[in-house]
């Protein structure tokens, strides 16, 4: 891929996503896993239904099965027995009813199930009121027909897809092999949680933030020891890690300071494809390759690292994993705040949805510093303010819930 890092100005968000997606293109490997291990993984093949669901007409509730034509002559039918789920299918005697439970097969000769609360049970008979023929029966194959497409290749398997596959008897499923991603955080100031801080040290936040994020997306994550601000150490670790992983993601060290060695190391070992994006927070984002191994350099500030990972890295990573749908839909919500000063970069700000005077509105956290994470924990999503736009209360803005990104 041709380098775009020498282009003047900032790269657009769309350009960054497209370029990173191209960089991460690779043949997707697949393997078979037990259904119990497939949650969060991506389906590698189309899967078709093995059987009709339901397999037979069955009752949608507890009640009584009958032939509606029998009620043309009387409202009271003698009770002939009981049909339960798992029992052998019974035949309804003419002019009778059978007690039936939810999920049980509808007896041969019955065409209606009447809820028990709409009936008057007597010792050996049931009194019925008004009955609608055909009610409360789940028809064979109304959910899925045998041979129909069940799930398409590229589907990320959530709890509902796992349950659907179980309903069809799948014990194992073909999935895309997870990308192996190495995480590297850099900076002399970093200290591992659990250690005692010395001098001006701070705890290493991004290592744990990114590991949790990537594991939640179904990737295989390796955390490397944090890098001190030393070019030789950076070259050695990058060279080793690039041979062990499918992709490297680092945080910090991609700004313009003399102690920021990561871009230099990447240029010596491979190629820098893009640096600096018109996004706030997260402008210093960079990516390229170390040998043949792609590398993404996220900003060091935690909120900036989170936002760029969610907005730019996420769609490219999921596409590389074989997932077909990678971009969440923007909700359109009403602003309850003002931002009078337009910015040169598109802003992704920490916000939450609230109902005010019966209307759904988005509220900003008062602190939007890229060095903070408390505001990210307060927020339930990101409000999008396009570049060169001011905001007044009542304006309609794009909003991405965190639930659609995590």
Q: Biggest sheet, strands in spatial order?
A: 7-4-6-5-9-8
Give a short account of the largest sheet: 6 strands, mixed
User: In percent, how much strand structure appears in the residues?
Assistant: 25-35%
Low-confidence stretches: 1-7
Q: Give the total of beta strands.
A: 26
Q: What's the overall average pLDDT, rounded? A: 93
Count of folded domains: 4
Shape: elongated
Remind me, CATH topology of the largest domain?
Molybdenum Cofactor Biosythetic Enzyme, Chain A
Explain what the structure shows.
By secondary structure, the chain is α/β, with parallel strands linked by helices. It has four domains: 13-29 and 178-320, Molybdenum Cofactor Biosythetic Enzyme, Chain A (3-Layer(aba) Sandwich), CATH 3.40.980.10; 32-52 and 155-176, Alpha-Beta Complex (Molybdopterin biosynthesis moea protein, domain 2); 58-138, Molybdopterin biosynthesis moeA protein, domain 3 (Beta Complex), CATH 2.170.190; 331-404, Beta Barrel (Beta-clip). 19% of the residues lie in helices and 29% in strands. The chain contains seven helices and 26 strands. It has helices spanning 13-23, 159-167, 206-216, 231-244, 262-269, 302-320, 374-378; strands spanning 30-34, 47-48, 58-59, 63-66, 76-83, 97-100, 112-115, 119-121, 125-128, 137-138, 149-151, 172-176, 180-185, 190-191, 202-203, 220-223, 247-251, 270-275, 279-280, 286-290, 293-298, 331-335, 346-356, 359-364, 381-385, 396-401. The strands form seven sheets. It has a six-stranded mixed β-sheet, with no helix packed on it. Strands 16-13-17-21-20-18 form a six-stranded mixed β-sheet, with helices on both faces. Strands 22-24-23-25-26 form a five-stranded mixed β-barrel. It is elongated. Mean pLDDT is 93; it is low at 1-7.
